Amino acid sequence: MSAIIIQDEVVHYEALGRGRPLLFLHSWIGSWRYWIPTMQAASISFRAYALDLWGFGDTADNPPNYTLENQVDLLNSFLDNMGIGKVALIGHGLGAIIAALFTQKYSQYVDRVLAIGLPFHSSLINSRFGTTTPEELASFILSNTSNSDQAREDTSKIDPLAINQSLETIKKINLQKLSHQILRPCLFVNGENDIAIKSPPAQISKTLPRHLHQISLEGTGHFPMLDKPNKFNRLMNDFLSLEPEQSPCQLTLKEEWKRRVR
Q1: Each residue of 177-219: pLDDT tens digit?
Q2: Angle CA(100)–CA(205)–CA(180) in degrees, nearest 5?
Q3: For the domain bounded by 2-261, which CATH number is listed?
């Protein structure tokens, strides 16, 4: 287990591979652990990190740290402590919101963002969040997800307050406005059958500027990286391979990519 000390508290992370830095941020259910297969795929070309946020996995439980602002500060402190100057971020659910907020505040440190299951409005988050235990929430969200053991394994380590406090903070944020304020190339990915986070309305997706793009993956739920790992990994690698001046909109125009993900 790898860990550093931030604010006199233990912060857990893991890392694989060599190359440009890439950081994975987990959702409300699970921990760094369910990223392992995706990290292995990315580690061929990248130094892939996965971080446990405050109140999750093996990072310390400390309720004052559970606000989104403090989770963003955790990410900033982690990058500073690890000597990572610029990074690509892959965030999922809660992690997608933190990645977006971090990019809004510290865009100079972000290369690009892959945001999975980012709610464009708080009303798109299933009402079971904040009203059931993490174990019950995991059973509900992962009921139709294959290869879900790694997402379930650390559920007992989640402090329910970490979920609830993040949800309270989210209510105060204009998530649609936030998504438009990301100044780095960003690909929004939603699972077509996600019962945790509803896909954004079509009219919202159509208003995104050229450096932002949204894709819905067929046959996947809240964990597309577990439901369709080969499809997700190909999409991830294609996005990470884009040149800085290339728009993620091109991902749906490339016939080679279309053939591979059908």
Answers
A1: 888 889 999 999 999 999 999 888 776 777 788 899 999 999 9
A2: 35
A3: 3.40.50.1820
